[in-house]
Amino acid sequence: MDRRSLKTIHTVCGVLFLLWGGVTLGGPSQKTKDLPPKYRTWLTEDVVYIITPKEKDVFLQLESDRDRDLFIEAFWRQRDPVAETRNNEFQEEHERRIQYANAQLGRGSRQPGWKTDRGKIYIILGKPASVSSYGGEQINLVPIEVWFYQGNYGPGIPASFYVVFFQEEGLGDYILYSPLRHGPKKLLEAYDGDPRQAVNRILRVDRELAGVSLSLIPGQSTAIIDTRPALDSEMLLNKLAVLPQQKVDDLYAERLLKYKSFVEVDHSVYYVGNEALLKVVPEGEDRYFVHYAVEPSRISVGSAEGKYFIHLEVFGRVADLSGKTVYQYKKDVSLDLDPEQVQEMKTKRFSFQDAFPLISGRYRFDVLIKNQVSKEFTSFESEVAIPGPLAAPRLAPLILSARREKRAPSDSGFLAFRVGDAQLYPVANRTFKKSDRLFVTFAVLGATPVLAEAGQLEFALFREDSKVLSFTKALRDYPGPQAYCEELDLSPHEPGLFSITVSLRDADNMDLGAAKEDFILSAQPGLPATWSISERNPPPDDPQYSHILGTELLSVDRIEEAKKLLEEAYRKRPDSLDFALSLAQAHFRSQEYPKVEELLTRFLSQADEQSQVYDLLGRSHFHQGDFAKAVYYFKKYLSHFGTNLEILNLLAESFYQVGEKEEARSAWKKSLEIEPRQEEVRKKLEILEKSPASSHPSPKEVHQP
Q1: φ, ψ for residue 352 (rounded to 5)?
Q2: Distance CA 276, CA 431 (A)
Q3: How far apart are CA 105 and CA 99, in angstroms?
Q4: Which of 160, 159, 177 lies closest to 168, judged by CA?
Q5: What is the pTM of this model?
Q6: What's the pLDDT tens digit per position in 176-220?
Q7: Beta strands in 464-606 (DSSP E)
Q8: Which domains does the chain have, with CATH numbers?
């Protein structure tokens, strides 16, 4: 597989992440009656029987017609049985059912056909296999219709069943009949006698109808002498009412609401579900990496001029529990494929995998993956906990895989799920087959020499709640210390839900903690293999990681810790502007302004490409009272990067301090034109215009440093 390009940008992604960080689900909803008529009709009539509560809640939180239109398109797309075709067969059939209900099932009713009980069932289930009508010529029966359905309607629904409608007391609309709530006597005209006699009267007219009056499920009322209505019929009716909602994964609605502000219009309706996996893996004694895998339910391949390719955009964000961004990145992933690889991908699960370092703490991690070929997007969210200094030895999380390869000593690159001297290939859905060898990989953290020599590992394999395998091994039997691995044979075990537990014990057999992971052993003899894309990152000792960790520490105000790591990274790569800027930011926040100037003046030739150089230099001189130099750098910033309100106000203040009255007045006026609601700026301008010129400092020369 040839990688055309795989670029990583560890920079702020502008508005994207500002919007991302500000999104909350379950926000304020408007009332249905306040929707524009077009959308109120869609919600309360067109899809009232098939929309899920979550979808409805999300729809009511949308604030613009543009977002509502995109939601409606996504709504139908999620129900399209054949996404590759131009037509949406589900939508077409649903609209046909509504038209039929309105034309045929509303006759004689004061309400439209879709709103009647018969209309609702027809819209949900479609045309019945047969319809039987009773009443009229049959003495003592009210008008009755019995609809018979047969087929696969989903889990919990019998292969065949009846739905019954009747006109209560022979008048009004046909209403849905429940054997439990109505009972057989409701099917008779002017009858208020014993229920047993009611069944017998119906039996004299029609044996099938007598059975249906007691149970809607064939075979449950063969003994008519038992006249007690079946509870199963009521359960069936309840299941039928929500059947359309059970057949759609409405997670897409939440994702559309969360990402609608920054996923392009042509992406936003194409949400794809996924399986995902996240593990925190130690690298050395005091550094941790977050490894993750996202496996979309489908991946589209592009083609042009006989060539095939995949092009993904990956956005990742780590935030603390208050929502403050700690780390974020954007990656472009492009792959060239040959025809054989395209065919191979059709039989495999596609998996995007990556890893990044993270400082200690508890966080929320979000990743958004956009497929530029098909305009599809998928996302994954998870909590992440990175341990701090270890107070005692402990086990790292278990990683389960059916494939594990020894890496070559010459291979110094770093891939996701590379642990110690092995490359792991975990499966996101944790499903294995009987022919697999299960590799259980983990680390022992903070192991003392005594523990490494005399400690024990106890392994226990459970199927459901029953232990099916257990054994103990000494820590010294493993090469350790970061990558312990045990290989298990799955072939002796029957399919089912399993869990593997590894316990750490010291020389005195004292329990030091355990790690557990669940997995599924499938009954299927063959499961699709995984086609993985994993970026080849620099080796773990590369200064890039110290830089990332330093910026993360800076974001949570752990400035002294940040400076140590940022200085380490800059010392190893002094020609890096990014490294210099991050370290300068740390010095600026420590009010070490001369160090900012010392770091950044050597990068002035690159400053036109990076706004932070002029920004930090201008602010540093401003805080030192060197306003002439501050003016120079702020003017450079504005001329190269456009208007920035905060920089403009600092420039005005700097002009004022060097006695440039007209320049200060002009800058503050421009600031108020951009944003009139700045009372402090307005007061400064008023004072400036009222005071005599002699009260200002004499002009100083504004020169280039």
Answers
A1: -95, 130
A2: 12
A3: 10
A4: 177
A5: 0.74
A6: 999 988 989 899 987 877 777 888 888 888 889 999 999 999 876
A7: 466-474, 484-489, 496-505, 511-522, 530-534
A8: 128-244 (no CATH), 390-532 (2.60.40.10), 591-705 (1.25.40.10)
